[in-house]
DNA sequence: TAGACGTAGA
DNA sequence: TCTACGTCTA
């Protein structure tokens, strides 16, 4: 197989619990939570249709955590701040299409939040200096409640997905407040 | 510590033998062979001076395997084909400086060669298709014999380092011919 | 072949 | 902040 890989799953990943923390995308991939190294929305094909398996909120899009159970998640693509290319309207392809399909199929989507933590470096030369590190936290399963189109920060059309946390899961409020 | 990390070493890495194969840079990092994810030349600071610890030949620079024991390795930087930026003359900083220092100190440098292998994909949608994968092979310890400056393919000044394989190691000729 | 919510170190 | 011989999917 590939360098780091496990099979893709929809929904729960055995052995991973709400609140579990990870340090990088490669770790998310090894564990099976989120397979893509770069994209925020991961998905798989089931019966000829793509469904979202997981999303990562790395604070690079205008996502909003409305409450401990509602996350407004932005679609991907078209953003000039990321690509340096001309801005474009988002389209229902790849991750965006997968989230739309997941809404219609009411299939669960794993949500991974992120936070910056500061640590002491242990690298020769910068030893002891404070450095920022990304931390990934598994927040549990969500359903895509609705989506809409709006004008984003740069004037282009972006999709917004209302992610609603499934209730039958351990609460995660305290951790979220820290995030 | 970081997501995937072990301490940096000069010379042999315990448990790694000539001919050992790896599938990606993250794996090289975990094993301790080569710590940087992107740069071809890795190095560490010892007594206030940087020394090269390892180099990767990923066939993206004009490196030449002259024989089973001599590799002409190009310095890094300035290359417009990589960065899309204006081409620049290479300078004795970072990796290039480290290789120069390693020559003067006659310290060993780990050499990692690469090869493309083709495999059958096991991803839904492209299952069964032939895909190309990078393979990394540990070739052993080298000494930097000499360096010089020349005009590269694009007209800029590039450094060339003559890497000479240390004799007291298992031979690796057959594998190299396959590479 | 291009594009993407990466990653670490200087 | 910027760069870099990455990595994967479509």
UniProtKB/TrEMBL annotation, chains A, B:
Domain YDG residue range list? 11-165
Per its UniProt entry, which superkingdom is the organism in?
Answer: Eukaryota
Q: Where are the transmembrane segments?
A: none
Primary site of residence: nucleus
Q: Which UniProt keywords are given for this protein, alphabetically ordered?
A: Nucleus
The entry's localization annotation reads: Chromosome, Centromere; Nucleus
Full protein name: YDG domain-containing protein At5g47150
């Amino acid at each position: 197989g590939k360098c780091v890989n496990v099979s893709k799953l929809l929904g729960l990943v055995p052995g991973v619990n709400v609140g579990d923390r990870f340090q990088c995308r490669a770790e998310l991939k090894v564990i099976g939570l989120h397979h893509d190294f770069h994209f925020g929305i991961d998905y798989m094909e089931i019966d000829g249709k793509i469904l979202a398996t997981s999303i990562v909120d790395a604070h690079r899009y205008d996502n909003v955590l409305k409450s401990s159970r509602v996350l407004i998640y932005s679609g991907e693509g078209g953003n000039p701040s990321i690509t340096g290319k001309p801005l474009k309207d988002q389209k229902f392809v790849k991750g965006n299409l997968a989230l739309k399909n997941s809404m219609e199929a009411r299939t669960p989507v794993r949500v991974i939040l992120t936070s910056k933590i500061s640590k002491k470096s242990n690298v020769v030369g910068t030893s002891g200096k404070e450095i920022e590190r990304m931390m990934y936290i598994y927040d549990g399963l969500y359903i895509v409640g609705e989506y809409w189109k709006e004008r984003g920060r740069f004037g282009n059309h972006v999709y917004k997905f209302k992610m609603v946390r499934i209730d039958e899961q351990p609460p995660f409020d305290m951790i979220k407040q820290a995030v």
